[in-house]
Specification:
It is a single chain. The protein is an alpha+beta fold and about 450 residues long. The protein has 9 helices and 15 strands. The protein has helices spanning about 20-55, 60-75, 100-105, 115-125, 180-215, 270-290, 295-305, 395-410, 415-425, and strands at about 75-85, 90-95, 130, 150-160, 160-170, 230-235, 245-250, 255-265, 315-320, 325-335, 340, 350, 370-375, 380-385, 435-440.
């Protein structure tokens, strides 16, 4: 028969075996708390990386980097200094954590260019922890009105091996100086921040290139006097998202002003090429036959169907015709959203009527024509669905919001008017958009 062992259970790793049982249990509990904190910090870092990587706007990304770093280490103040082209001083300084009164105290003070302790990190890009800023050899003090700060944690952010800027954190909320754990987690965040910044810069290059290509396919509006016209095109927020939205306006030999807005289905090079073909063919047909808009659209549909594989396309073709009293709008649509009229007294009306089928659906289908009087000083807005569509709301809501925005800002000069609507669109920006506004002369 074996004798009972007199030895107790093996202590947990890192626990002093000479301590009493209560003390050992307390030490184990403290280790568990530290593990929980470390786990929470790691989860916070992962969440922060995901949050930063979702942003596709550089100013938003930079501000998000600062605020997430502050959250991870419990800092009251944070800033990100972006180096200028020389790499010797700061060209941009993004701050977070300052109260309104503190911002007011610093009004009129130029943002830091990288002197003192901030400059030390520019020229020595290793992580920097300072428990007393004033005692650091590089310290030059703070400008008048600057909040008092004692502690600093600074980490450089690199993009493709080049220092992009420096992340600065000051004053832990618990009053303690920054420690090695704070440094490690901010260094990890800085690595992810560099990748996020590079992704956004690449995204902006692709987006700008796609937008430039798209704009080359769109016309510059001619002088349409006595009418006033303005147009704007905005690409989708998605990178490399070429679209098929287009607009055009021109005077015809029979003294009518032709206006068209259209949207080729698709978001690729094929859609952009089809848009260019459709616009060019439509211009030729408009000059060739002075017929109702419905007949021009029918002939356009048949011609394109015969010579090219046209994707499904919506369009609205209108003629602004001078009448004995004012103007008349004569239009036909191919599955497109109706024009919006805004009168000088801010009354709005969508010209809802039989829309007809989109192009490239049925070339033999008859297309309806419609007419509507347009009083002096009235604005007629043509637009594509990228202006009003939002995946979370019915399109009627977007149309209602657009009508309200248009009514409230129809007094603006026409160029400002269309830009305002594009900037404050009811949509979520997932699709490209085109707007064209035509305004009749006032009496």
């Amino acid at each position: 028969m074996m004798a009972d062992s007199a030895e107790g259970p093996e202590p947990s790793p890192g626990v002093d075996p000479t301590l009493r049982l209560d003390d050992q249990l307390e030490q184990i509990a403290e280790q568990l708390r530290e593990l929980a904190v470390a786990k929470d910090r790691l989860q916070g870092l992962l969440d922060a990386v995901l949050t930063i990587s979702r942003e596709m706007d550089l100013p938003t990304v930079l501000h998000r980097i600062v605020t997430t770093a502050m959250d991870l280490v419990g800092a009251r103040y944070g800033a990100l200094g972006v180096l200028d082209d020389s790499g010797e001083q700061l060209g941009q300084f993004i701050t977070a954590g300052l109260s309104e009164s503190e911002r007011g105290d610093l009004s009129g003070i130029e943002f830091p260019r990288g002197r003192g302790v901030l400059g030390h990190l520019i020229h020595h890009p290793e992580p920097l922890r300072v428990d007393e800023i004033g005692s650091h050899s590089a310290s030059v003090g703070f400008p008048p009105g600057h909040p008092q700060m004692r502690t600093l944690l600074g980490v450089a952010i690199s993009v493709r091996g080049t220092i992009y800027g420096d992340l600065y954190l000051s004053e832990r909320r618990d009053g303690r100086p920054f420690d090695r754990d704070d440094e490690d987690i901010v260094v990890a965040l800085a690595g992810a921040a560099g990748i996020a910044i590079e992704n956004v810069r690449l995204f902006e290059q692709v987006r700008d290139g796609a937008e430039h290509f798209q704009r080359l396919l769109l016309p510059t509006l001619p002088d349409l006097s006595p009418l006033t016209a303005a147009a704007v095109y905005r690409p989708a927020l998605t990178p490399a998202h070429l679209g098929g939205d287009w607009y055009d306006a021109l005077w015809l030999p029979d003294s009518a002003c032709a206006v068209v807005i259209g949207d080729v289905v698709g978001h690729d090079m094929r859609a952009a090429a089809a848009m260019a073909q459709t616009r060019s063919m439509l211009r030729a047909l408009l000059f060739d036959r002075f017929t109702p808009p419905s007949s021009v659209l029918t002939q356009l549909d048949r011609t394109l169907n015969a010579i090219t594989d046209l994707p499904v396309t919506t369009a609205c073709l209108a003629r602004m015709e001078q009448a004995e009293e004012g103007w008349n709008l004569h239009w036909s649509t191919a599955g497109h959203l109706p024009p919006l009229i805004i009168t000088p007294d801010r009354h709005t009306e969508y010209l809802d009527a039989e829309p007809g089928l989109p192009l490239a659906v049925d070339t033999e289908q008859d297309r309806p024509d419609h007419t509507h009087p347009v009083p002096a000083g009235t604005t007629v807005l043509f637009f594509t669905d990228g202006l009003v569509e939002h995946p979370e709301y019915p399109i009627d809501r977007g149309l209602a919001v657009l009508a309200e925005l248009a009514a409230d800002h129809a007094h603006l000069p026409l160029d400002d008017f269309v830009c305002f609507l594009a900037d404050h669109r009811p949509s979520d920006g997932h699709d490209d958009m085109a707007l064209l506004a035509l305004r009749t002369p006032s009496d």
